[in-house]
Here is the input.
Amino acid sequence: GEEVAQTPKHLVRGEGQKAKLYCAPIKGHSYVFWYQQVLKNEFKFLISFQNENVFDETGMPKERFSAKCLPNSPCSLEIQATKLEDSAVYFCATLERSPRTNEKLFFGSGTQLSVL
Amino acid sequence: SQKIEQNSEALNIQEGKTATLTCNYTNYSPAYLQWYRQDPGRGPVFLLLIRENEKEKRKERLKVTFDTTLKQSLFHITASQPADSATYLCAHGSGTASKLTFGTGTRLQVTL
Here is the structure.
């Protein structure tokens, strides 16, 4: 498709429950990024993939967070044992990476995770 | 680590005027700076990219400048319209497919 599709739009979890978020990248885009947006527009980079391989995971919390991009499946971000501080909007963004695209990221509409 | 600062949290201007938003970075010069627009409940939308060896870029009513001496990028919207009201984000990138470091954004409100 021509847009980054993120599901679900909203996710409510009790503290300690698992949360799983999905992202279908634009067809032909080989890079996928996950960002966390908390209060006041603060974007925090989590992880990026080049196809199904981890490209940069320097932003991923060491515990509880994991992510995958498998062939022919949406990418996923999973949070085990959610905490109140995980409440945020999680954005997926994709990049085509060709000389004409100017490092332009295409963002999905985000998943609003609320941990109660 | 690199830090991106957008000094104005909010900017209110009158329709027809030029809006100027500021983005400052600390430490090393980024390979490029990008500007995005974000509307409530939506993901950011790419507007412009300027590289460290470029001084100015334009796209329709938008203009971006990059001053490596001042460590600053300015983003201008000329002949502003109420439809330009949104949050504008500056982001630093260091290389190919690199993660972006975002500023906290400036919320622009254009009134009639």
The two ends of chain A are 34 Å apart (CA to CA). Chain A has no helices and eleven strands. Chain A touches chain B through 28 residues (CB under 8 Å). The CA atoms of residues 6 and 23 of chain A lie 5 Å apart.
